[in-house]
Amino acid sequence: MTRLLSWFLSTLALGGFALLLGVFVWQSAPIWQTEGTRYVTGSAWFYRQHQFGALSLVYGSIAVTAVSLLLAGPLGLGAAIFLSEYLPQRARLWLKIPIELLAGIPSVVFGLLGIALLRDWVYRVFTHFDPLSGDTLLTAGILLAVMILPTVVTLCDDALRSVPGRQRSAARSLGLTGAEVVWSVVLPQALRGIGAAGLLAVGRALGETVAVFLVIGRQDNNLPHPWFSLAPLLEAGQSLTTKLGGAETNIAFGDHLHWAAIMGLGLLLLVLTAGATALGTLGRTPHA
Amino acid sequence: MRIRATMRLFLPLFFSLLSLTSISASPLKINGSTTVNLPVAEAAEILRAEQKLDIQVDTQGGSAGGISMLGDGLVQMGMSSKPVSPEDRLKYPQCDFHPVHIGEDAVALIVSRDVWENGIRALSKSQIKDIYEGRVKNWKDLGGTKPQRIAFFNKEPGRGTWEVFVHWLYGSPKAAPQVSFPEVGGNEETRSKVASTPGALSQLSASWADGKSVFALALLGEDGTPISPETQNIASHRYPLSRPLFVLTNGEPSGEAKTMIDFLLSDRGQALVQKHGYLPLKALHP
User: How many cross-chain Cβ pairs, A to B, lie less than 8 Å apart?
Assistant: First the structure.
């Protein structure tokens, strides 16, 4: 009975996801028919002229996510190593609780903090590069870094704790120092779990909307020239989620092609976040 | 077993959907401009609560949608931020359009304090075009005493303020060139962003330009005289960036439509007009 029910519920969940994906594919079909792959590779998004190139939006999403992971990754891993390898068990728990509480704070609260503190800070610190305002892709990335930090810390800590303690004792008895144990015994074995933590954090960062919306500046068609240029990071930009959360979604409803283009963005976002999350989850279960 | 579980899940959902579609007969249907919608929708909410009126307010197709749906008899009241044209009347001969003026919407070009102190007090139409099309990027080129980058915030798509702006600049939203600027949404957001960003410029409903955190520029007329968005200039239409707000009925308003119009013209209704950033009638005809 339990097995039957769990099979049924799993099928239901999987079916729900397939249905969701199907709806997005079906609703965005017109844009794929008219634009084809140019929809993803095109760099101009002007909906009044019916130009729908989503590249700058994909770039915006990837740019803010990359910035956040670059900042939160090393910091989070460092914090996790400290928590799991250097703190006594009791202190570790006491520190882990507030960190996990941080993960539960509504994102709009982070957004407000971003407006209150981060915008001006970015503007002042990078004033040498002459940004037009404090609303930039970089601001959004830094804000996201704060938001995904708890995820990174908790999951990295779990990954490190899953390395058996006996191996640590064995390594110590061979004469390795504490740092050497972490570096050459624990980290290599936890690598897979750490990678998974990163991917799950990426999934969260990609999907975050409200907080990013408040500080990203919402400027369409911001792309780097040449492609590796960092200059657009200090300009206002737009990500997949901020486009979807913005005014255009309401306007698009009723316009066949425009709506399809918006639903196409939803599909891209769904595929990106689901991909990152699925990979991350697989990485967390070693025998999957 | 599976089927029964699904039924249990979906049947209540199904019935609740059914009950949604069977709303009681003939509500007062209103459709049209998103700009006029703001005070009207709030008035509708008050009338729903206080007088148990059944009112549906929608904004399909903006002003043009309001006029055409009233002309076709699909709604009992239209909302429009432009006068009904003779062409509209020709197109719908069966409809006797009866416009009621409920207020005026003026759009100011506002700048941050440092721009104001840099000596920028007025802009001409061609200067504004230069900024909007990205040919001019520094306040010094527009008469500022010291060089300062222009941080232009564009109103996001669908905002009435943006439409007034491009109507004046290019004739219609469709004729406006393709530009990408950082976007701002509502009046509060626009004002605080402009106030907190050096070199900032944006469009804002005139009643929100407080002269303390943000400053309204005058527009240079054809002869070079500056015209500021002051109440008397808006009322006399010397200030070009403004438009009247109407609700429309077919013939003299009656019944629930009359109740709505009477409410909009009352002190409470006019306070709603003002609340959403428009000039009430009293300010137009003092």
Answer: 57
